[in-house]
Amino acid sequence: MSLIAFEHRARVFSETGLVPTGPARPSRAHRRQGRLLKGAGLALLPWMGHLAATLPTTEAVAWVTLDSFEALALTAAGTSLLRADGRHRFPAAVAAVLLVADACADLATAAPGQETALALAMAAAVEIPLAVLCATLAVGSRESGVGSWPPGAGSQEPGVGRRVGRGFRPVT
Is 169 helix (H, G, I), strand (E, B) or coil? Predict the structure, then answer.
């Protein structure tokens, strides 16, 4: 019985032009970027604890909420990149917007002097470069490797990109 099923699958593959695929492997650059984003998201956890412990309650709630969303978006984007999942674009876009908003809010609420210098240094060294990376990943080319979603979305060939079955891709 299993031989018949195997022959049927082989015939379906040859007739439809589909081949089974294994899990996608991210490029070295995407692995590095994924680790960076995931690490940045996880690094925000102790920072949120510090903010909660040192700021007045109303300010702590606002900053911890913003940083929580940043951590969630960065971790989701990083995890998606590490899994070679093309759905990293949305969390990367959200992270970019939140990081720019955080940098602007830090600069707007900092007291003159040392606090402003620290906010400017954090924005220039951490928040803005991470936002640029996230924006680049969010806007990235559809043919650039880590699985465009849906598969073949960057292709101009008719019929390519339609999801026919789980774990299959058109033969190219």
Answer: strand
Task: Choose among 102, 100, 94: nearest CA to 66.
Answer: 102
Q: Give per-residue pLDDT as tens, 64-100.
A: 999 999 999 999 999 999 998 888 999 999 999 999 9
Angle at CA of residue 59, ends 55 and 64, nearest 5° = 85
Q: Would you put residue 17 in left (φ > 0), alpha (ψ -120 to 50) or beta?
A: left
Sign of CA dihedral 128, 133, 135, 136: positive
How far apart CA 130 and CA 51 sit, in angstroms, is 21
Q: How far is it, in rounded angstroms, from Cα 19 to Cα 168?
A: 6
What is the biggest distance separating any 2 CA atoms in the chain, rounded to whole angstroms? 79
- Is 149 strand, coil or helix? coil
Answer whether 26's CB lies under 8 Å from 145's CB: yes
